[in-house]
TrEMBL record:
Co-factor requirement: [4Fe-4S] cluster
Organism name: Channa argus (Northern snakehead)
Protein name: tRNA-t(6)A37 methylthiotransferase
GO cellular-component term (any): endoplasmic reticulum membrane
Start and end residues of each Radical SAM core domain: 195-426
Keywords attached to this entry: 4Fe-4S, Endoplasmic reticulum, Iron, Iron-sulfur, Membrane, Metal-binding, S-adenosyl-L-methionine, Transferase, Transmembrane, Transmembrane helix, tRNA processing
Catalyzed reactions: N(6)-L-threonylcarbamoyladenosine(37) in tRNA + (sulfur carrier)-SH + AH2 + 2 S-adenosyl-L-methionine = 2-methylsulfanyl-N(6)-L-threonylcarbamoyladenosine(37) in tRNA + (sulfur carrier)-H + 5'-deoxyadenosine + L-methionine + A + S-adenosyl-L-homocysteine + 2 H(+)
Domain TRAM residue range list: 426-488
Membrane topology: Single-pass membrane protein
Taxonomy of the source species: Eukaryota, Metazoa, Chordata, Craniata, Vertebrata
PANTHER family listed in its UniProt record: RADICAL SAM PROTEINS, THREONYLCARBAMOYLADENOSINE TRNA METHYLTHIOTRANSFERASE
Length: 561
């Protein structure tokens, strides 16, 4: 018979009482303690030594994220909230007190890495909190037993969960965000975050999708389509540019389906966002499935031709066989995919179309596979994500008759060889291009920039280029990159309307947002500013006072000068 200790706490309210002391009250109580002298040889007990280390908000946290840009955005939000609450984010897993593991459920290898990381953390006596699609889809897996879980729509409560994990409690928050019974896109978009790259903002425009692909495990975690309102996305984009961002990525499980649940659509959103993009800054669209982009081809072509939008679109085909697509329940045929690609190539000269292909899906014949090879030969995709099929537990495809492993491996190898047999960028050598510099290459030898077609261009690593739009002459082309030489008489252009945040710095809320959010929180809420914990009402008055003082100063200066 299980003991009381084995019971599962489904929500944090089951454990935390309104009568519990707040972090501010705990800190005040500690200051009121009168110290007494100890004898030199008197040693502290283990309990006394550990007392301070168990105060939530003082520990070091290491976070690892697997998977898509949507998951990376969730990770940035969680890191920002933890840092704003006093926790120190570290890049060193060894020195961390707690590991926050943000998982991906798309492929078996990603979940294997996630599971191995949990085991490694436990072997090193680390506290562990798990997040992402794996625990959301399968919270009862044996290797997750006893671990605290943050659901994909509960990332705004990461501090609460980590606080409890630090104290040795197990808390699981897996619920959905709803408003009047309608499912929401997720946590608020104006939460604090730490951008992995201070120059790039990743915005999730919706969660979930309208499909039911037979191989997909992500659907079990992210669920049906739920979109953020246009105004919230516009405001988040505006705030990002005010914090020095020069490139915005839109992400979701299917951007093309955006808005169908709230009475709008993707082009409507994009035209609003384009109005917010400063000169020289760029917008990148995320993945869209063929069925939902077909309705908007005319408008999408106009948007992709806009000078501040990358002429790039990721449209997964998965297979060129209608039979296989039907078994996958992809809800389109190969002619639909061809229509999308042909239309965009005609209306958006030079457009980059990236795609995905699964090799060895159950029931795939040699004839099916040859059709897929023919498609790649026809379009010579410059960006092709090749995936050997892995049956994911709980999906319909896992119950289908499987293609032998050696056949899947051979087909994956053959398609990879075809992809590497052509160089898509050779004809670009000699061109003069404007490129936006946003990051550093993996070998740290170059800065990485992208041209209008989101093709990777390596440029000299000069500090004055970072975050700038520069003009280059292309002098070399590789399989996945171009190399550009800066034009001598050209000057770098700064697209950012503000200085970017420092790496690791937390992006903050605007003053009016802080006041508004303060009003919606309980009076006992506390905020961390520097090393000080400030109560809600004090912070609210402080912000209002500073705003008023700034206004008075501006008035005085205007009258005097």
């Amino acid at each position: 018979m299980p003991s009381a200790c084995d019971s599962l706490i489904e929500d944090i309210e089951d454990m935390v009482s309104l009568n519990d002391p707040t972090p501010y009250e705990r800190q005040s109580a500690r200051k009121a303690i009168i110290p007494r002298s100890r004898k030199k040889k008197e040693l502290l007990s283990d309990e006394e030594l550990q007392a301070d280390s168990l105060i939530p908000g003082t520990q070091k946290i290491w976070m690892k994220t697997w998977g898509c840009s949507h998951n990376n955005s969730d990770g940035e939000y969680m890191a920002g909230q933890l840092a704003a609450s006093g926790y120190k984010m570290t890049d060193d897993p060894v020195e961390a007190d707690l590991w926050l593991l943000n998982s991906c459920t798309v492929k078996n290898p990603a979940e294997d890495h996630f599971r191995n990381s949990i085991k490694k953390a436990q072997e090193q006596q680390k506290k562990v909190v798990v997040a992402g699609c794996v625990p959301q889809a399968q919270p009862r897996m044996d290797y997750l037993k006893g671990l605290s879980i943050i659901g994909v729509q509960q990332i705004d409560r990461v501090v609460e969960v980590v606080d409890e994990a630090v104290k040795g409690h197990s808390v699981r928050l897996l619920g959905q965000k709803k408003d009047g019974g309608r499912r929401l896109g997720g946590a608020r978009l104006n939460l604090p975050k730490i951008r992995k790259n201070p120059l790039i903002e990743i915005i999730s425009i919706n969660t979930g999708c309208l499909n039911a692909c037979t191989y997909c495990k992500t659907k079990h975690a992210r669920g049906d389509l739920a979109s953020y309102p246009v105004e919230e996305l516009v405001e988040r984009t505006r705030q990002s540019f005010q914090e020095g961002v020069c490139e915005v990525w839109l992400t979701s499980e299917d951007t093309g389906a955006y808005g169908r649940d709230i009475g709008t659509d993707l082009p409507t959103l994009l035209w609003r966002l384009v109005e917010e993009i400063p000169k020289g800054a760029m917008l990148r669209l995320g993945m869209t499935n063929p069925p939902y982009i077909l309705e908007h081809l005319e408008e999408m072509a106009k948007i992709l031709n806009h000078p501040r939008v990358y002429a790039f679109l990721h449209v997964p085909v998965q297979s060129a066989s209608d039979s296989v697509l039907m078994d996958m329940k992809r809800e389109y045929c190969i002619d639909d995919f061809r229509r999308v690609v042909d239309f965009l190539k005609e209306r958006v000269p030079g457009v980059t179309i990236a795609t995905d292909i699964i090799c060895g899906f159950p029931g795939e014949t040699e004839e099916d596979f040859q059709a897929t090879l023919a498609l790649v030969k026809c379009y010579r995709f410059p960006s092709l994500f090749i995936n050997q099929f892995y049956p994911r537990p709980g999906t319909p495809a896992a119950k289908m008759e499987q293609v032998p492993a050696h056949v899947k491996k051979q087909r994956t190898k053959e398609l990879s060889q075809l992809f590497h047999s052509y160089n898509p960028y050779d004809h670009k050598v000699g061109e003069r291009q404007h490129v936006l510099v946003t990051e550093e290459s993996f070998d740290a030898q170059y800065y990485v920039a992208h041209n209008k077609f989101y093709e990777q261009v390596l440029v000299p690593k000069r500090a004055e280029f970072k975050g700038k739009m520069i003009q280059v002459d292309i002098y070399e082309a590789g399989k996945h990159f171009l190399k550009g030489r800066p034009v001598e008489d050209s000057r770098p252009f700064t697209p950012s309307i503000a200085a970017p945040l420092e790496k690791g710095e937390v992006s903050g809320l605007m003053q009016d947002q802080i006041v508004s959010d303060c009003a919606s929180l309980p009076p006992s809420s506390v905020f961390l500013i520097g090393s000080y914990r400030i109560e809600r009402e004090v912070l609210k008055k402080l912000v209002i006072g500073l705003t008023l003082a700034a206004a008075i100063m501006a008035f005085v200066v205007e009258k005097l000068f």
